[in-house]
Write a structure and sequence with these properties.
The chain is built from four helices and 20 strands. By secondary structure, it is an alpha/beta fold. It has one domain: Hexapeptide repeat proteins (UDP N-Acetylglucosamine Acyltransferase, domain 1). The radius of gyration is 16 Å and the shape is globular.
Length: 183
């Protein structure tokens, strides 16, 4: 099994692997080009996103600057909006459903590190997928941890740290993020 296959499967992997380093460099180059655009009159942003991301729905809008590790592990549904300074550490799949709105400075952290210090000392990493449903609103500066799912139609309050699954149709906020009420 390659390091890329281990990474995507959520197993321990070596991030210093040549293939992964080349893939991150590719993502850096594409995001740098994307972030230098000032408008999208000729569809340049759409073309860059199609080249960078695993899948891009219709009418997706990402305000630059945007940052990600690989890009090809990111799936955005129709009508997704990501505001300024969004960071996606996409070592495993990160899926965002249709019509989801993401505030500025939100972080999708599918990447994590082993709890065992000896594994960290060997520079091994791992991750777990992040899934965000449709028609979700994620407030500014929220952090989504590895392995979480947010259900359809939910709202995540600004500044929340999401480390557990959030069900559909709720307002959730805080550190750690917890359900406040049903919507």
């Amino acid at each position: 099994m390659s390091e890329r296959e281990r990474m995507v499967a959520g197993e321990l992997y070596d991030a210093g692997d040549d293939e992964l380093m080349r893939s991150r460099a590719r993502a850096r180059a594409l995001t740098a080009r994307y972030n230098s655009t000032t408008q999208d009159e000729r569809g340049e942003r759409r073309e860059l996103l199609a080249e960078l991301l695993g899948s891009v729905g219709r009418d997706v809008w990402i305000e630059p600057p945007f940052f990600c590790d690989y890009g090809w592990n990111i799936e955005l549904g129709d009508g997704v909006f990501l505001n300024f300074n969004c960071v996606v550490l996409d070592v495993t799949p990160v899926r965002v459903g249709d019509r989801t709105l993401v505030g500025p400075a939100v972080q999708f952290c599918a990447a994590t590190h082993p709890l065992d210090a000896r594994e960290r000392d060997r520079m091994l990493e791992l991750g777990a997928p992040i899934t965000v449903g449709s028609s979700v609103w994620i407030g500014a500066a929220a952090v989504l941890g590895a392995g979480i799912t947010i259900g359809d139609d939910s709202v995540i309050g600004a500044g929340s740290i999401v480390v557990r699954d959030i069900p559909a149709g709720v307002l959730a906020a805080g550190n750690p993020c917890r359900v406040i009420r049903e919507l």
